[in-house]
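worker-3 :: picked soluble epoxide hydrolase
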Amino acid sequence: MEGIDHRMVSVNGITMHIAEKGPKDGSLVLLLHGFPDLWYTWRHQISGLASLGYRAVAPDLRGYGDSDAPESFSEYTCLNVVGDLVALLDSVAGDQEKVFLVGHDWGAIIGWYLCLFRPEKIKGFACLSVPYRPRNPKVKPVEGFKAVFGDDYYICRFQEPGKIEEEIACADPRRVLRDIFTGRALGPPILPKDNPFGANPNPNGENIELPEWFSKEDLDFYVSKFDKTGFTGGLNYYRAMDLSWEVTAPWTGAKIYVPVKFITGDFDMVYTTPGIKEYIHGGGFAANVPNLQEIAVIEDAGHFVNQEKPQEVTAHINDFFTKLQDNY
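worker-3 :: tokens ->
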């Protein structure tokens, strides 16, 4: 992408790749991607925010893209990943004691942890897709998902090291990535063991019409990176969920007090999972995030709302941060 700078930064014992753009004295915005994603998911927001005077910084999180990928899933707990981000901010934020934060999917989850552990570093959090849910002290996450959604729920299917990687390879990684980014399946993702990624009517993966917002060049970029790294790094976040649950016992019942704006698409798989709309709009979310200032549901948008509706999302982010900026 034109005008976006790239460099490697040493953080927390690993080397992290970051993409950045914008004036050095601009208010820093840290943008966190999810699964199976990269800094590239923010390509539109990086340029858009930079044009508005912000300094946008988007890393490849550990395990992804051009950043280091520790082998063991035990190195992907929330403490490991938030440790990376604290070190990154110490390296790139200069004299800015507080920064703006944006997160999508797993980046949203990590963003919640960053707000929970180090709220003094965050001016405001624009959260995409995944609302904050407090730690349940009575049940580990994977066990809880299995009880509600069954053994074939995607998070449960991701737990066995190497298993889903083999299934992705058999199904063709290009097709799997294409379907994840452009699919519009509603509700909790289920991956049946006998045919997890559905039938493939076009084994060569070519001549498939892509939506206007996701080009062949976009798909090529993702495929080139995941061909190099594989998917294990990203999957390790799911495999470390129970470990993160164990190490966060001291934060049981904790609320998030950072100013928050929540943004989602009306066709998002998380938003359309049973019980989530009621939680978001019915008061439960606001009770756990007392400084939840706005909820924006973008029409005709799926899970990757930041890519599908880039101008709307950038406008929502800027509007929220502009209001907060007036308080600093």
